[in-house]
Task: inverse folding
């Protein structure tokens, strides 16, 4: 036992040091996005490649494999949900996946991702899918090689999905998203047919950037993002990154004539940041101190952005402050109108601009197309047509050009196949968690969650999320966690209940 | 030859990779100063220590020593000023110095520097030298051990000076600074006795920070700091740091009610940055792509700050623009008054606030005291009294408290002994280089340097500095370079000529 403990301690020490190097790589990436001098990009890539190589060599070191082999048979691994058990399981999972990929394939994937992103940028700008097609074909072929190297039981797509949502299965996601689609398509149609139209012009008035920044910062702090342990900056694409146990940085982008982009990105990234800030800092760098999956991560960002930040109760509490922050834009706008405007639903072509309801159809389209690409049923050359057909079928609109269609997202060019469904999983988890929180937190002396939000009180919810989800690290899989926290397995019900409950009254539909 | 070439290539590759790791460490340091979340400081120290350890292990690797040994005897090292010769010599110098220090001593120095700086901060705040004395005694004792480990020929202080100003000797610096002192003390005295007083109140008016930032940025670009390859940020203490061959970042600090602090720091740090940006980028990480010495580095910052930025010709060209940037402060101030104010000379207690003339006496005092500390002639307990006596003798003023005296600088607490004289060497080099540049550049169709400055034209000077100094990297020692560029060895003459030529007319003294 004592020898195994020593090996276990070495294992943890090794993982922590690897995480430390990884956290430095994150700083290089953050700095690249926030303010790298233009001419410094090439050397920055060299710096990042050096650290990435260091991390990869450590993560695939044969001694690490031997160490994990020894421990996996021993008593420390017996309970998979114990601290030691979860640590050994998590590190083994990462080691197994990484060592299954031949070095040549890893290098080809990296190279193709760099070229692919360059090609995608140009193709999108020129609305020219044909110029991007060869690289996407190479990428899909490489991902199919990855699938074979990693292995799978049921669906080849499982091998890719597992990278982002460990343990999740294609069949399960297909089942849940199909049910969601069957209910959403008619709901969205009835909203489109409704006579009521959200007064979205309100959100396109003048919102001075300084005021957006200070209002956003204040709301981020109020929902619980800790600025002693984080920062807020401006980048072209909003993101959240962790540079250490006490350094979580979020970014947003402001548009002087649009409220949503800057503000809801801040709430969204704050949600990611609050999750990271709630992980057990003493376990930093170990599986028990790390996020479970992209889906769970996204559930936290969506929860704060949509379930809190687009709720009536939130704005009952915050609207007066918003009006004084933006007197020219909101001074004469009623809360009813503002609330309706930020919850506008309408079919659109661009995923990142989509509302809460249609968003999941954007994801479903990508999820279905990805599976066909990976199985080989859909040749890359047929992708634009298939894309447009699905938009017509699910959303009733057809892109007039590929730049607004199949070329809109960076993901595939970078080799991120299997990633999209985690966005919808995040929405589903978020609704299910939120229902449970509302039930558990609404009973005390503190009033319902809505009453708390009206008072600007978010700590009970944050503490609940922290205890139930954040502090668990990777002790449980996402599926286990949702079952444990909410008492049932993941389904489409909570999300649908919520969308109906919110959009029905707004649009006068049911 | 071919085998030696292979070894040489490996040597260069090794040095480049070490520099790459060092450049990442610089980013960690820059980020720490510019915006690290407060709670992240401890982990940041861990990240920096990890990389520092990596760099140190690489710099002292026995294989590196063997490789250098082999090459030092071969033809590639024959000409010490050739690219290969300078590379081998420079890397060997660094290797020898680092391997001469026992690991224990290095660790003790690091530990004492951390504790020393903490103790110094508290002692300075409480004006309590006695509380700092024990740590300074430990530090001095360790530096004396360092002297013994490194070795020296003439003066023990040589072993420390050589770290910052390779090849320079205590005796030479003593000789030059003594001559400077003998001429400066009476000049400063006659200025103090002059009836003319600079209207420094002008510089204490309202200078809005945004205007300072944009004016400073514009002037930095105009003298040649390349913002495609650099940034300007705000920190508590201004500095310049290099994060790669095309990433040089400068910082400043603004005071809304004082012009000099923000503006001249920008010019000063731009001078450091222009030097770094002028080093041969293809040799980045090698001695031929690195700065020669702190003294030469400082010569470039002082040259742009003082010899250009405090010249009448510079403001003949720039003052109208300054007036429109700061209409409230400068709108009614004449150029004569402004020029006199930024060239105010008066004995003062604080080095970093000292003018061009008295500054060198502040350095001389430290240089003399350091030598006595290192030789053991001056016990640390007698330091405050000795400090005050020298201020009285050289500057005619006596600190009323140690916080404004011996406790004002961080250097000794951090183990930086032998560093101060490089500031004065920088002033001396700058004047001597500038005289040579003025002679060589004033002859063409472009008019004198002053005429160029009046037209806002700084590229001829920058190109000259770049060709003569920056692109040389470490091919020559500082002493060799000054001889080569100016035709004579370093002396006090040029600096004194310049100060007399400028201050004489301003104060009506000779």
Result:
């Amino acid at each position: 036992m004592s020898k195994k403990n020593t090996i276990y301690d070495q294992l943890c020490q090794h993982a922590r040091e690897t995480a430390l190097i990884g956290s430095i790589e994150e700083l290089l990436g953050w700095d690249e996005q926030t303010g790298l001098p233009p001419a410094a990009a090439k050397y920055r890539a060299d710096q990042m490649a050096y650290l990435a190589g260091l991390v990869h060599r450590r993560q695939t070191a044969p001694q690490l494999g031997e160490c994990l082999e020894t421990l996996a048979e021993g008593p420390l691994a017996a309970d998979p949900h114990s601290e030691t058990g979860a640590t050994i399981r998590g590190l083994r999972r990462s080691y197994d996946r990484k060592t299954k990929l031949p070095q040549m394939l890893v290098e080809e994937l990296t190279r193709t991702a760099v070229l692919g992103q360059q090609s995608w940028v140009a193709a999108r700008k020129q609305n020219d899918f044909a110029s991007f097609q060869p690289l996407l074909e190479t990428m899909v072929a490489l991902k199919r090689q990855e699938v074979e190297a990693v292995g799978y039981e049921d669906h080849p797509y499982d091998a890719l999905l597992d990278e982002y949502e460990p343990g999740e299965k294609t069949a399960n996601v297909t089942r849940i998203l199909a049910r969601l689609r069957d209910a959403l398509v008619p709901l969205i149609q009835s909203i489109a047919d409704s006579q009521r139209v959200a007064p979205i012009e309100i959100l396109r008035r003048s919102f001075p950037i300084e005021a957006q920044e200070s209002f956003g910062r204040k709301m981020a702090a109020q929902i619980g993002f800790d600025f002693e342990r984080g920062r807020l900056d401006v980048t072209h694409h909003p993101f959240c990154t962790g540079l250490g146990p006490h350094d979580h940085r979020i970014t947003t982008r402001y548009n002087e004539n649009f409220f949503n982009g800057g503000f809801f990105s801040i709430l969204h990234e704050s949600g990611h940041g609050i999750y990271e800030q709630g992980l057990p800092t003493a376990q930093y760098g170990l599986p028990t101190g790390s996020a479970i999956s992209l889906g769970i991560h996204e559930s936290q960002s969506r929860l704060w952005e949509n379930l809190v930040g687009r709720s009536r109760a939130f704005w009952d509490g915050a609207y007066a402050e918003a009006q004084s922050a933006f007197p020219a834009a909101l001074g004469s706008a009623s809360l009813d109108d503002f609330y309706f405007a930020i919850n506008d639903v309408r079919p659109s072509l661009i995923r990142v601009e989509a509302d809460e309801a249609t968003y999941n159809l954007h994801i479903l389209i990508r999820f279905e197309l990805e599976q066909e690409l990976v199985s080989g049923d859909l040749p890359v050359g047929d992708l634009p047509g298939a894309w447009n057909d699905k938009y017509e079928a699910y959303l009733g609109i057809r892109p007039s050009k590929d730049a607004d269609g199949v070329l809109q997202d960076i993901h595939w060019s970078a080799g991120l196949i299997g990633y999209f469904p985690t966005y919808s999983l995040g929405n589903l988890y978020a609704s299910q968690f939120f229902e449970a929180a509302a039930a558990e937190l609404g009973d005390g002396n503190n009033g319902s969650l809505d009453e708390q939000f009206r008072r600007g009180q978010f700590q009970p919810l944050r503490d609940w999320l922290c205890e139930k989800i954040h502090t668990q690290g990777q002790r449980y899989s996402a599926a286990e966690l949702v079952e444990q926290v909410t008492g049932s397995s993941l389904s489409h019900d909570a999300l649908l209940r919520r969308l109906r409950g919110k959009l029905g009254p707004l649009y006068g539909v049911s």
